Amino acid sequence: DDGAMPAYDAMFTKVAKYGDPARAMMKEWKVDEGVSGDDVKESIAALTEEYNMRLTGYVKMYTKKDAKPNEVKEARIWSLCNLTTAKIFLNYSRYYGGFMPCRIMYVQYGNGDAYLISMDMTLAIHGGYPLPPKMLEAANKVKVAMEEVPARAAKGDF
After folding, report:
1. What is the 3-state secondary structure (H, E, C) of the chain?
2. 140-156: burial string, b at 16+ Cβ within 10 Å, e else
3. Distance in angstroms (rounded) separating the CA atoms of residues 23 and 11
4. Rounded-to-integer distance, Cα 27 and Cα 123, Å
5. What is the pTM of this model?
6. How far is residue 127 CA from its own chain's centroid?
7. Any idea of the CA torsion for 40, 43, 48, 50, to the nearest 10 degrees?
């Protein structure tokens, strides 16, 4: 044992620190200055295929033009899925359906700060009994996609 705290333990530590379980279960990436919500939209659409994911939905939830600096000005959400992996997980446990499709949320505040937020898949993958090897491999590919797509989109990467 190297004394490192498992990632899911870090989630519970965040719950205790911030009192916000949603924050503990998510990862976020600050969107670079000058990268607009429309830039992020184009970027996510372009990157999705590179990671063998399908863009299954997009909604511009709302825009509030006169948002205060700490108030949400714009919110968008993308749904992504790898259908082959989804079938494997649903056959393993229908409850994984609650995590599907994977989502990326764009939130911009009145002060111009914007973030991309997506679920930290650590607990879903490593929080129970070990997954069968083929399933673990598929899950880890989706995890990589759901971390790299928003990280790259936050920089306006294609």
Report:
1. CCCCCCHHHHHHHHHHHHCCHHHHCEEEEECCCCCCHHHHHHHHHHHHHHCCCEEEEEEEEEECCCCCCCCEEEEEEEEEECHHHHHHHHHHCHHHHHHCCEEEEEEEECCCCEEEEEECCHHHHHCCCCCCHHHHHHHHHHHHHHHHHHHHHCCCCC
2. eebbebbeebbebbbbe
3. 9
4. 12
5. 0.89
6. 18
7. -150
Q: Which two tokens stand for residue 53?
A: 């994911």
| Closest of 121, 106, 108 to residue 25, by C-alpha | 121
Residues 6+ apart with CB under 8 A from 143: 121, 122, 125
Give the model confidence (pLDDT) of 19-62 as tens digits: 888 888 899 999 999 999 999 999 999 999 999 999 999 999 99
Q: What pLDDT, in 10s, does the model give residues 67-120?
A: 999 999 999 999 999 999 999 999 999 999 999 999 999 999 999 999 999 999
Residues facing residue 146 across a β-bridge? none
Separation CA 58–CA 37 (nearest Å): 12
Please give the structure tokens belonging to residue 119.
């679920």
